[in-house]
């Protein structure tokens, strides 16, 4: 049998050939890939031996498979044999050397390969190299093919399915790489049995293999519990292998499998992204990963080809392609490129404005959710609010249930620290996770949440955290004036129920949606007595003003001794009477935060990360904490986005915000009532604290001899302040 | 008389009209200006009363004149009366209100205006508004013109030349705005006497006026002693008024005046810019000002029109226009736009690669200099090294003689803090200079220099600093292997001579030019005894590794009590034996610094700014200091630029550098000898420490029983290490 290209037919190749030199997304992609591959082809071929994780050898093998994968297709598309020659020669070198390398010494629980320190990477190598081989095999002599098959591919297949058989059927994101690699290599070798076992599991009994994986790894919403960073890593073999199955096992009807789980999970992944295309760094992740990642490019192309509606490719998908400025070099990508070209001819493609979405978690979707609310301001800028009220994200999850992040004007404002790891930076512990990831980045205090008594949620116990999850209360995004979500976390601190309700409010007098945040701590189920509640905010930029006096410490000590507090310098602090105001400048935008608690004591503490960091592993970043001591407590705060600063052009407008105050009127098991005052209006928000409330539940709450009543989860009242009466009140 | 456009003839207007809607630089400029002006025209007209510096009122008046200035010309170019109507109506409002405003209350030594807190801003207003008026006067009724002339322009002219006559003839950068405003307004009113007094001074005796200013403000090199930040501010009225004089007083032959001082000083300004177009923040300046500033756009256009060589506009000027992506909306800008279009048709315009240049200071060029050395790496990236060995930059100058900054790969690596000021941010002290500007940003320790005994240069005494300057030793930039400059500062610390010699070396095995820095402190003229020398480095990014043990402090104290040390936290420190290595990651690039001193003791101290900063006025930025105690001392260090890191794509290459060591072989009054070892070669550099050396001076220096000899200022020897013998040495 003569191996044929696995992912391309002759007629598809001809269509791609016609894109050469054009300025379509596909044309640009081909040109960019040619440039990259040719630059790499200038270097002498190298198949190095063992090296450190993140070191030269690791990176070189990764580059080798990356460029072989591109070169294989470029050979077909351009018909230029130089690309095929590159693949042939490099494969020959691997065939010569591969079996001379022993297995790496095992350093942790991951099985090791001959090229890489963990077989995950060897799976990647095999998947991409098999695809490349399938493109150029027709140009190779029988002898050349035999060397590659016998001295690389067959030993690898044997390793993955026999030596490491126990690992092959594991339901895990790494497992997708394993089955995709084995299935595709089997096809390339004409050994269909490997494709069968990859799709259906070694024992063909649904306990392993690709179909079991995609059935079990994702929640009904499509969300992947390890978060978007790991999701985008798994999405690449998922989509590539789905396309292979689509072409070579049409009987599976893979794109309709389980109500279209492939499309569903791609959509879920895309719907987490910030408006600029970056993924929120949820659950122990990089802060810089975004939709331009190659895996997401493949996913967007596959989605465009197989899940476009009858009206064609969705505007938001086109918007994402605009950010990516590239497509998958494949007929799926050509579909997207063509749609983009057609749509561009009619009007300029805008940035994506993905709808708000609540993504449930757990196999049945009953283990809480991740909430994503988006709202546009008058100029079209998108504010995005993210709250985690789902599951703990497996072994390396953060302890941040009810944590939020907030993004607008192109930047994350209430920020996620992200993981403490310098990926592939060999002198930084081989690019692996650093100790400070556990001691700081995953702790509750490192997030935008409330830390009780200087402890971490679930006491930093992963097993305990895995056994609990958030409880969704409401997710309401239909209104134009107010969007919001609320959830409980009643199992994360012993003796406490916690409820967080976050909203975006469109007020006529404000430039951007106002973030409103109510965080309630209920200690009546065993947490009686006074507690310390630290409501923390990770920001970036320069403090511009406050409405209270504070003292900058003359010498710096840590804020505490454990649970992340040992890494925070106590930079400055001040007592607050009533509502605290903290205003800062982040790049070109001013932010003003006003916060209060229901207790009559409060303190603002300004911190900076970097204490007890003997190897400079942490970034030095500021935060401020509203600390309040009491029994059951409600924190209420708003964050206003306003003005513009440009240092280069020496412009500054609206450096002070419009919001004047926020006040806790009261709270009880029934509900919470707060009042916001701006220069123009008085805004009352009443929300339900009853976990079993519905849209028709009646609420009545008596506070200060006044009865507040509303139906359903919450109520918003906006009253314009009469300038006359406002004057009289003074 | 009917007022005609001052800066445009009818035929020029026709040429500009033809650019409408094109994608030339001029076409794009016009479109962008239309968009900006039209957005502003949407707002209701407003001529507000007194306000705070940096506040709404201040900004509004500034916006008003900015957009009137553009609208006047847009009316002529587009022939659309809406732009003229905007100017007419806004001028009418000013005419109605101007005299009803009293003069601002004077808060410092600056005279105040009716619109602004200092007349500098009122000068700007008058210059731009007079130009706008000249464009639209023909569309106004006699009554409208009369109101503007009698109720704004004449009172302003009177204020500037009578009430504040004592200030009008001052030779100062602010004075250029004064004379330009008065001269141009006089022309607009047909009162040529104001033009005469603006050009020749009130008394027409060369002690004041534009010609005296441009003769005296700039050094023969064209350098302006307050640095590029203030220079770019002065360059706008300089160029605008020069063009006015060119057109209305051709007898002055302004562009050839004093051997072309206008062109000379424009070129000097441009030649200071970093490769990305930003200006080094020399002398108490903003870090974000660059050639895209409107003043520099005007200057580049004027230069292109009047100083192009017979071969047309210089490639570097075109490169700057590429960064600016705009031109002055004037025939001068059209000249540049046309040249750009013609050159683009032949080949892609590259980024500018300005030649290395030494810009002398002082009226005769004898007060030291500012040195700028640029070198390209193999991929075309430009490294730029800047050293200050000139004058103290007037009242707000930094105390940083012999300070350096270093830039490559698109970022400043050895960094200048810049001023401590949030320009126009009203809640930050009205946008004015903050206390920490004096107590930190201008102190020697805030710069990349050596601080002796925790004191500031010249004891932070401005008068003393104004009386001394650096002494240039050599500036050599002809060689391809090594470029360098050296200077003395013998009057800045009592009892000490200081010499700094900085080089960029092109070594075959390195990706980028290697920065070599020799800083010698000679205490033999009265500074006998042991002293503490702090050789400091302001960097940005994350420490990756060191070659010595250090202790991160468990509590933080300030590094000292005065001269800026009170603002530095002592974060960590460690003793060093031999050569210290500090490696860090700044964005996508690794930097490795190796440093040693001739003393047998050394310590590295890691600091962070922000101590004793009660209002968060300082930015939190890291630095490290090599501290060495001894008598006369030589510091020798190299900074290697290497590798690539991309978090998003999880790529890391060459995280460790090639340079292995640097060693001080010895130093004396005759010379210094150091040796650098890389993985491939041993590099010996010998340099002259004799202030009266020439290119032919013979140097002999005996160190460790070996004689080092060379002719001229320095000598470079590169010896490949024999791999055999290197092996044997182990």
Automatic annotation (TrEMBL), chains A, B:
Keywords: Lyase, Periplasm, Signal. It holds the Pfam family Hepar_II_III_C. SUPFAM superfamilies: Chondroitin AC/alginate lyase. GO terms for cellular component: periplasmic space. Residues 69-273 form the Alginate lyase domain. Residues 371-630 form the Heparinase II/III-like C-terminal domain. It is found in: Periplasm. Its main location: periplasm. One of its GO terms (molecular function) is lyase activity. The keyword Lyase applies. This is Chondroitin lyase.
């Amino acid at each position: 049998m003569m191996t044929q290209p696995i992912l391309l037919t002759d007629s598809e190749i001809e269509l791609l050939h016609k894109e050469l030199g054009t300025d379509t997304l596909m044309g640009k992609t081909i040109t960019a890939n040619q440039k990259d591959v040719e630059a790499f082809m200038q270097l002498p071929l190298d198949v190095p031996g063992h090296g450190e994780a993140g070191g030269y050898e690791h990176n070189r093998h990764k580059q080798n498979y990356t460029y072989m994968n591109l070169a294989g297709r470029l050979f077909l598309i351009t018909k230029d044999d130089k690309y095929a020659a590159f693949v042939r020669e490099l494969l020959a070198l691997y065939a010569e050397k591969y079996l001379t390398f022993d297995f790496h010494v095992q350093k942790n629980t991951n099985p090791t390969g001959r090229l890489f320190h963990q077989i995950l990477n060897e799976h990647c190598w095999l998947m991409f190299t098999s695809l490349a081989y399938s493109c150029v095999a027709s140009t190779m002599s029988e002898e050349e093919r035999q060397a590659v098959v016998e001295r690389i591919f067959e030993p690898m297949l044997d390793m993955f399915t026999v030596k490491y058989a126990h690992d092959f059927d594991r339901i895990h994101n790494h497992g997708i790489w394993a089955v995709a690699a084995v299935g595709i290599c089997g096809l390339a070798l004409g050994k269909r049995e490997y494709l069968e076992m990859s799709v259906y599991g070694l024992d063909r009994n649904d306990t392993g293999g690709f179909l079991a994986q995609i059935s079990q790894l994702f929640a009904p919403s499509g969300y992947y519990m390890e978060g978007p960073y790991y999701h985008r890593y798994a999405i690449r073999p998922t989509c590539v292998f789905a396309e292979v199955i689509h072409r070579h096992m049409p009987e599976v009807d893979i794109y309709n499998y389980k109500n279209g789980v492939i499309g569903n999970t791609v959509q879920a992944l895309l719907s987490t992204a910030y408006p600029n295309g970056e993924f929120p760094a949820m659950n122990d992740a990089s802060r810089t990963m975004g939709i331009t990642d190659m895996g997401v490019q493949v996913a967007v192309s596959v989605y465009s080809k197989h899940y476009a509606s009858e009206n064609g490719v969705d505007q938001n998908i086109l918007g994402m392609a605009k950010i990516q400025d590239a497509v998958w070099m494949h007929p799926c990508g050509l579909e997207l490129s063509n749609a983009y070209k057609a749509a561009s001819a009619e009007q300029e493609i805008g940035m994506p404005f993905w709808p708000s979405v609540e993504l449930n978690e757990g196999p049945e979707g009953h283990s809480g959710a991740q909430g994503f609310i988006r709202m546009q301001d008058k100029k079209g800028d998108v504010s995005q609010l993210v709250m985690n009220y789902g599951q703990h994200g497996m072994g390396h999850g953060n302890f941040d249930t009810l944590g939020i992040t907030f993004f607008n004007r192109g930047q994350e404002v209430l920020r996620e620290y992200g993981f403490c790891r310098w990926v592939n930076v060999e002198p930084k512990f081989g690019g692996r996770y650093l100790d400070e990831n556990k001691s700081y980045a995953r702790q509750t205090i490192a997030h935008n949440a409330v830390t009780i008594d200087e402890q971490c949620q679930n006491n930093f116990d992963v097993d305990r955290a895995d056994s609990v999850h958030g409880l969704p209360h409401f997710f309401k995004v239909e209104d134009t004036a107010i969007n919001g979500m609320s959830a409980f976390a009643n199992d994360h601190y012993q003796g406490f129920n916690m409820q967080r309700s976050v909203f975006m409010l469109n007020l006529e007098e404000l430039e951007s949606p106002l973030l409103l945040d109510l965080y309630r701590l209920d200690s009546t189920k065993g947490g009686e007595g006074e507690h310390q509640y630290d409501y923390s905010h990770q920001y970036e930029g320069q403090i511009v003003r406050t409405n209270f006096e504070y003292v900058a410490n003359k010498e710096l000590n840590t804020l505490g001794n454990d649970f992340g507090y040992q890494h925070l310098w106590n930079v400055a602090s001040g007592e607050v009477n009533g509502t605290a105001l903290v205003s800062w400048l982040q790049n070109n935008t001013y932010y003003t935060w006003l916060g209060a608690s229901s207790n009559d004591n409060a303190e603002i503490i300004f911190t900076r990360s970097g204490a007890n960091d003997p190897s400079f592993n942490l970034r030095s970043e500021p935060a401020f904490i509203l600390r309040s001591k009491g029994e059951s407590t409600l924190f209420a705060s708003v964050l206003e986005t306003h003005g513009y600063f440009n240092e280069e052009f020496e412009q500054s407008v609206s450096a002070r915000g419009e919001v004047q105050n926020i006040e806790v009127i009261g709270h009880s098991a029934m509900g919470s009532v707060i009042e916001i005052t701006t220069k123009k209006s008085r805004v009352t928000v009443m929300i339900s604290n009853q976990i079993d409330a519905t849209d028709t539940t009646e609420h009545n709450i008596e506070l200060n001899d006044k009865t507040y009543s509303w139906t359903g989860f919450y109520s918003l009242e906006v009253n314009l302040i009469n300038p006359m009466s406002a004057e009289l009140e003074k």
